[in-house]
Amino acid sequence: MEMEIKFAGGTKVDAYWQGQVVKTDQPVKDGGEGSAPEPFVHFLASIGTCAAYYVIAFCKSREISTEGLTFKQRMEWDVEAHRLGRITFEISTPPDFPPKYRKAIIKAAERCAVARTIQHSPTIEVVTVG
To answer: Cα separations (Å) of 122 from 3, 46, 89, 102, 112?
Structure first.
C-alpha cells in the first residue's frame, strides 16, 4: 500500500489515495489558513467514523434501524505526556433498540481497524531518499 502526500502551498498538505484527496491545513493561530481540518483532526475523525461504520454495519446486518442511534467520541488530553490519553465512544440507542444487542454493538465498534491499529501500534520509520 502506498499513499502519495503532496505539499499544497503554505501549511496545506494533501493525501492522495485511490482517486480521493484528503486535504489538510493548519489553524490560523498556527500559521495556516484554516481552509481544511488539521491532520490531527483527520486522525481523530478516522477513529470515530471507523467505529461508527462498524456499528452501522452491525445494525444493517440484523435489519435494525439506525434511526435515533447516536455516536459520540470523547477525547481526553494527557497534559504531562502532551498526547491523547483516552478516547471514549458513547453509543446512545433509541428506546426500541433490542436490549440483547447492547453488548454486541459495543463489540462491533471495537472491531474498528483504526482503533485496533492504535492499540497495537505499528512501527513508524522515517527515511530520506535521493
So the answer is: 16, 16, 22, 31, 15
Cα–Cα distance for residue pair 35/63, rounded to 1 Å: 39
The sign of the torsion formed by the CA atoms of 52, 57, 58, 64 equals: positive
pLDDT digits (tens, 9 = 90+) for 35-48: 999 999 999 999 99
Distance (Å, whole) CA 40 – CA 15? 13
Length of the chain: 130
Q: Which three cell numbers stand for residue 65?
A: 434501524
Domains of the chain: residue spans and CATH: 4-119 (3.30.300.20)
How far apart CA 105 and CA 127 sit, in angstroms, is: 41
Residue appearing with cell numbers 471495537 = 110
Segment 11-30, tens digit of pLDDT: 999 999 999 999 999 999 99
- 110 to 9, 65, 83, 113, 114: CA distances (angstroms): 37, 20, 22, 8, 10
pLDDT tens for residues 81-129?
A: 999 999 999 999 999 999 999 999 999 999 999 999 999 999 999 999 9
DSSP 128: -
